From TrEMBL:
<comment type="function">
    <text>Catalyzes two sequential steps in the biosynthesis of coenzyme A. In the first step cysteine is conjugated to 4'-phosphopantothenate to form 4-phosphopantothenoylcysteine. In the second step the latter compound is decarboxylated to form 4'-phosphopantotheine.</text>
</comment>
<feature type="binding site">
    <location>
        <position position="162"/>
    </location>
    <ligand>
        <name>CTP</name>
    </ligand>
</feature>
<keyword id="KW-0479">Metal-binding</keyword>
<comment type="similarity">
    <text>In the N-terminal section; belongs to the HFCD (homo-oligomeric flavin containing Cys decarboxylase) superfamily.</text>
</comment>
<feature type="binding site">
    <location>
        <position position="99"/>
    </location>
    <ligand>
        <name>CTP</name>
    </ligand>
</feature>
<comment type="pathway">
    <text>Cofactor biosynthesis; coenzyme A biosynthesis; CoA from (R)-pantothenate: step 3/5.</text>
</comment>
<dbReference type="GO" id="GO:0046872">
    <property type="term" value="F:metal ion binding"/>
</dbReference>
<feature type="binding site">
    <location>
        <begin position="127"/>
        <end position="130"/>
    </location>
    <ligand>
        <name>CTP</name>
    </ligand>
</feature>
<dbReference type="GO" id="GO:0004632">
    <property type="term" value="F:phosphopantothenate--cysteine ligase activity"/>
</dbReference>
<keyword id="KW-0210">Decarboxylase</keyword>
<feature type="binding site">
    <location>
        <position position="109"/>
    </location>
    <ligand>
        <name>CTP</name>
    </ligand>
</feature>
<keyword id="KW-0288">FMN</keyword>
<comment type="similarity">
    <text>In the C-terminal section; belongs to the PPC synthetase family.</text>
</comment>
<feature type="region of interest" description="Phosphopantothenate--cysteine ligase">
    <location>
        <begin position="11"/>
        <end position="233"/>
    </location>
</feature>
<keyword id="KW-0436">Ligase</keyword>
<feature type="domain" description="DNA/pantothenate metabolism flavoprotein C-terminal">
    <location>
        <begin position="8"/>
        <end position="223"/>
    </location>
</feature>
<keyword id="KW-0511">Multifunctional enzyme</keyword>
Length: 233
């Protein structure tokens, strides 16, 4: 059979930024466009997979045949991801999850205080969604876990570290220091690393700058091949 065929497979993908509320009208977020995650969802659906796309707030159309689950905060994304991961074969964490959220969300709009030129916000760490799911081995076999790593230096070392520390099967590393690539851009380049699993050796694949659509297709194909190799099919 085609080593990259995805018929009968369930794929869950997180995408976009998260939005962390401060009060009823304000939030903390980042500039993630969601383009890479949506391109991955499209590529997986085209391979025949059943795709669930868990997305933070983005201005993108849902790819054909993809089930979209809209979320806002990291905690909301974690809940949706945990539910979706239960019966998933492949889980790809492409979201730019906010590292911190407000310790307390103000019930009413935070007011300027006269005579005070500074405001202190106390933030607490958000859960690491992909690491939480990778660690959770209860129930059905854990999905094949793919994470992303955006780095400005020592790409391979930090990516390898992320692979190990978050207990992932594969990591897609982007050098975000290169002009015109990555965040918000149409194109991207990547270094894909995977670990040794059940008798199959570790490996790497260097993907030169190309459209996010082309890159997504290769990433999905590579993940499916590793997944099939692991399952011995
Ligand atoms: O640690 P860092 O944010 O660089 O890791 C990036 C990878 O981890 C991405 O796959 C991202 O989707 C995932 N992540 C996550 N939950 C977080 C932070 C990152 O799932 N709170």
């Amino acid at each position: 059979s085609d080593a990259a065929d995805a018929h009968g497979m369930v794929v869950t993908i997180t995408a976009g930024p998260t939005r962390e509320p401060l009060d009823p009208v304000r939030y903390l977020s980042n500039h993630s466009s969601g383009k890479m995650g949506f391109a991955l969802a499209k590529a997986a659906a085209e391979r025949g997979a059943r795709v669930r796309l868990i997305s933070g707030p983005v201005a993108l159309e849902t790819p054909a045949g993809v089930e979209r689950i809209d979320v806002e905060s990291a905690v909301g994304m974690l809940e949706a991801a945990q539910e979706a991961a239960v019966d998933s074969d492949l889980f790809i964490g492409c979201a730019a999850v906010a590292d911190y959220r407000a310790e307390q969300v103000a019930e009413h709009k935070i007011k300027k205080t006269a005579g005070d030129d500074a405001l202190t916000l106390r933030l607490v760490k958000n859960p690491d969604i992909i690491a939480t799911i990778a660690k959770n081995t209860a129930g059905k076999a854990r999905p094949f876990m793919v994470g992303f790593a955006a780095e400005t230096r020592e790409l391979e070392r930090y990516a390898q570290d992320k692979l190990n520390r978050k207990n992932l099967d594969m990591v897609v590393a982007n050098d975000v220091g290169q002009a015109g690539l990555g965040f918000g851009a149409e194109d991207n380049a990547a270094l894909v690393l995977w670990r040794e699993t059940e008798g199959t050796p570790p490996g790497r694949l260097e993907l030169p700058p190309q459209s996010k659509g082309a890159l997504a297709a290769t990433i999905i194909e590579t993940a499916l091949k590793r997944l099939h190799a692991r399952q011995g099919s």
